[in-house]
């Protein structure tokens, strides 16, 4: 281990000497064409040292990713040296205008905002939009947390010709939320396949529509579907029929009067008007019951 560290320091020293010499017009490693490439001052926006045009950087390692040995296998390391610095890899067009960036973002620029702690992929907004040529986050993944939350900002998330799958041992939620200060989110609704045990015969893993309070606390399941038999419950998590309503009323808002007892209809259709309730008892076969006041 000591030998490896000594060799690493030696190579680092050579690299620093090489960079220093290159800035002054010194020579470096020979290129594939036989010429000796040299670093030079960048003429692009932002300045810095430019690697010779069209030369390849080839990095390789045979080391493992072991924390106790200093992660010897990392070949590129970007490190912030101030608490609000943001190491980034950027792509620019032929005019030097940033188009895409991958940014590691620990703290917000504004000290009054909460720590961001995420890596983000950013791209420029529409050239004819409000934020022309500005980089905005399109994909964001947090660190220093056990939650693998992926966020998008100022953009849509599309799944084209494929499957968006949510798999887990517990509840599997597709959540709808509101965004508050500093991008904090509060859930409003969730489409949930619950984490109930799979007992065979298609039992378990039932589906529900969960509603939340203004504080983000789950209230109840407005709609519940049993996977075993497809029964639907409104206000109940144990529906005993194809539609089981746990309430004191069902509303059919619009009146309908079948033209005759042989009017078109399907078995089970229900209709009403001011004088009767109509029930279709067979294909195109209606019966009615008179209504009266009391």
Provide a descriptive summary of the structure in words.
The protein has 294 residues and is mainly beta. Helices cover 7% and strands 29% of the residues. The chain has one helix at residues 2-23, and strands at residues 40-41, 49-50, 88-92, 98-105, 118-124, 135-142, 172-179, 185-193, 207-212, 218-225, 232-234, 243-245, 270-272, 276-282, 285-290. The strands form 4 sheets. The protein has a 6-stranded mixed β-sheet, with no helix packed on it. Strands 3-4-5-6 form a 4-stranded antiparallel β-sheet, with no helix packed on it. The longest helix is centred in the first third of the chain and has 22 residues, at 2-23. The protein starts with a helix and ends with a strand.
Number of E-state strands: 15
Considering DSSP H and I runs of 4 or more, what fraction of the residues is helical? under 10%
Quickly give the structural class. mainly beta
Strand count, sense and closure of the main sheet? 6 strands, mixed
User: Mean pLDDT, nearest integer?
Assistant: 85
Helix run count: 1
Strand order of the largest sheet: 7-8-9-10-11-12
Shape: elongated
Taking pLDDT < 50 over at least 5 consecutive residues as the criterion, the unreliable ranges are 1-14, 16-29
